[in-house]
């Protein structure tokens, strides 16, 4: 049995601009292929062949992506969260009616030995639930250092609970620039709570 492996690291990944905006009209407000490649590399990274990550997608975010990106994510199980859809969308592996059901898939007997990390790819309500989840240990949040008109926003979170890391293994530390837009990859780590120390 794999009872000790039932709990998985659960991590948010997003990019937000100066006003914490993340989207506009169902799309990203910016065109930053290098930043998007960082997303792709991060969520597909596993420790060894045969291992998998799981990505949780809200319905809107799932359909905001071109289908071609899903075929470039070989190590990933895609979970779409929706109360209205009735069939698993093309390229996805699971459809769940709520966030917790999606998370619990990673602990199923036939998956718990395979799944390493649960990545949460948004949108806002899915991020909100992820921030509240006890398994959530890291937020990968690219700081897009510019103003964009947005209609969806990354939810506020407590910066004393999730502390910005000066450096983080595997994450470039320098300010990046693409298409005249500066951005910085940032990682916020949950402080160990007292109950865990005891
Ligand atoms: N910059 C970034 O890093 C980033 C990341 C992600 C998304 N975005 C942007 O965000 C926008 C898409 O966001 P969105 O507002 O459409 O949000 P979304 O969360 O992607 O989609 C919302 C829908 O997902 C389902 N859903 C979400 N949470 C749920 C829950 N807890 N339980 C059950 N169903 C749930 C619902 O579908 P039903 O209505 O079918 O129930 C809901 O209407 C796009 O502009 C996208 O580009 C940006």
From TrEMBL:
Top class in the EC scheme: oxidoreductase
Pathways involved: Cofactor biosynthesis; tetrahydrofolate biosynthesis; 5,6,7,8-tetrahydrofolate from 7,8-dihydrofolate: step 1/1
DHFR domain span: 9-190
Keywords: NADP, One-carbon metabolism, Oxidoreductase
Entry GO MF terms: dihydrofolate reductase activity
Catalytic activity annotation: (6S)-5,6,7,8-tetrahydrofolate + NADP(+) = 7,8-dihydrofolate + NADPH + H(+)
Family: Belongs to the dihydrofolate reductase family.
Protein name: dihydrofolate reductase
Organism: Umbra pygmaea
């Amino acid at each position: 049995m794999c009872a000790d492996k039932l709990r998985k690291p659960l991590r948010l990944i997003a990019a937000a601009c100066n006003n914490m905006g993340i989207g506009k009209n169902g799309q990203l407000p910016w065109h930053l292929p290098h930043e998007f490649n960082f997303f792709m590399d991060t969520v597909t990274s596993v420790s060894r062949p045969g291992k998998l990550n799981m990505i949780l997608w809200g319905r809107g975010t799932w359909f905001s992506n071109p289908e071609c990106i899903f075929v470039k994510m070989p190590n990933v199980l895609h979970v779409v969260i929706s109360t209205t859809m009735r069939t698993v969308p093309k390229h996805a592996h699971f459809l769940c009616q709520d966030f917790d059901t999606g998370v619990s898939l990673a602990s199923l007997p036939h998956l718990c030995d395979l799944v390493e990390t649960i990545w949460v790819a948004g949108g806002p309500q899915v991020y909100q639930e992820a921030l509240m989840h006890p398994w959530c240990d890291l937020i990968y949040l690219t700081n897009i250092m510019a103003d964009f008109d947005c209609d969806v926003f990354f939810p506020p979170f407590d910066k004393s609970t999730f502390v910005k890391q000066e450096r983080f293994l595997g994450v470039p530390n320098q300010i990046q620039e693409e298409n005249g837009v500066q951005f910085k990859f940032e990682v916020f780590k949950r402080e160990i709570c007292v109950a865990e120390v005891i």
